Queue: 2 jobs
Job 1
Amino acid sequence: MAGYVLVTDATVDLPQSVIEQYGIHVIPMAFDLDGKDYFHYADCREMPLSVFYDKLKQGSVSHSSQITPQMFKDNFKPILESGKDIIYIGFSSGLSNTWQNAFLTIQDLQEKYPDRKIIGIDSLSASVGEAVLVLNAAQRMAGGMELEELAAWVKCHRHAARHWFTVQDLFYLKRGGRLSTAEALVGTALKIRPVLSVDREGKLIVCAKVRGEKKAMDFLMGKLREEGVSLSEQTAVIGHSANPGQAEALQKMLEAEGLVKDSIISEIGPIIGTHVGPGFLALTFIGEEDRD
């Protein structure tokens, strides 16, 4: 058994079965819906995702919150006091101040627990992009990789985690400032779907625009063929928000081409779902190693 624990946050968007399989510790994150506060846990104990997205479709408004330093302490301290070290892979600093709170907490706890190792890594990604990095780290941890070696692998592969996604309702990107009102109106009228990813600073960027669901899926598949490495050894992660039909169709496309070893479908939680709305579809995988 490893002498350390892999910790991440609730933006990771991995199925609960995978989290349990690898013993990943997921820190819950807060969100509010119509002014009422909730915590999103990996097992969705406070609000099922079906309820969350149904409410968004009915016009409810949601906001997400960062993890506070106290929440980090509450999750890190029991692990340290049990005699284990920590590797924390966190939500992109380009999208939230959560990473800064984690960094400050780790500095504080390292002074109080000098015999323990706490390694924090900014994933520079979110949702299923963060998930594919965490999944690969968990698999290596289960294979016996030591803490420092795993940390080095994550740091040099965080830019290799490829995450491509599209959205169905442009309203949510407009509200978050990713699209102008005019772009959202025109895109909706023409059924144009933006394709997004993150840049090297972990910030969200619009990379392309396609028309229709089929072309969106073809674009994602094209990126897998173009950028993926050692695909026959990989588990790709497909993410969706209240969009199971398209996610399953994308998985069937993967299976038909035999491009990857396996694939996982994961529904997007309310932290990221707040900003992309229902109809999100993503494909994530590991591309060429990128040392930074």
Note: The chain has two domains: 4-157, 161-286.
Job 2
Amino acid sequence: MTEANPSRIAGEPTQRSESGIAQLQIDHGFFLAYRRRRASGEGAKRPGIVFLGGFRSDMTGAKASALDQFCHARGLGFLRFDYSGHGASSGEFRDGTISRWFADSLAAFDRLTEGPQILVGSSMGGWIMLLLALARPERIQGLVGLAPAPDFTEDLIWRTLPDAAREKLLREGKLEQPSDYSAEPTVITRALIEDGRKHLLLGDAIPIPVPVRLLHGLSDPDVPHTVSLRLQQRLATEDVVVHLIKDGDHRLSRPQDLARLCTVVEELIQLSAASNALSPVR
């Protein structure tokens, strides 16, 4: 795994706008849009929550909003942001790669959070979540994956493309595919595929020791639930629980799905509190 280039991180966050969206300045005049809720009261003694969104998604979705309400009710710190080329952040989506979005996530994590954190990753965000946990192990208390999609550029895109589509992608550098979630086609670039190979995780053991909870719908048309089962086997931690939801789709954004998400996040918060209580005083 190649860690993101720290030279991309520069400048300070700008002032928050009336909409509640602030901007984190990164390199070459680019910025990441984000919303941050600071911890308060008893919540300041608990890990914060960081939400990592999916491919072509943004921080305004149902899962991020549900977690924001959850954290507000408990005084927990919460961070959500848009990768470059996504949502309200600057940049073009077609210029993005896993390395780029991982670097975005490191910048946001390092500069907008403090202390221990629980990462919640949705779809592609589940891949970014794992990379971030490997890069900052001392600050991660737990992981929650929602239809996590590590290695999707290779396993779910490249390996499923017909030969003619592969040849076109290599020849022209991009390929447009229809999307079930947008009227605009999804642009898959050669750079996305080739860069993704630098960050593949499922072929080896993944040295993450913290508790992990994975939620995956059996009716997910985009990321097979077998990805979560394979991920469970690769993780070094023994504390991995996979919740398979019989009628769950890829979004996992129904009220019952959001309630289940908040339940598993609460579980990891309680596990963190219990672990810290048992730790010897230094």
Note: Confidence is low (pLDDT under 50) at residues 1-12.
